[in-house]
Amino acid sequence: MSKKDKALAYAAHRSTWGGRSIQFFDVPSSSTIWDELRRIKENSGDHCRLGSDGTELHKYAIRNEYFNFLKILLVMQSGEFDRVNVLYSVNENGDKRLSGLRIDNEVFKTHIKQWKIQPKI
Question: What is the pTM of this model?
Answer without folding.
Answer: 0.71
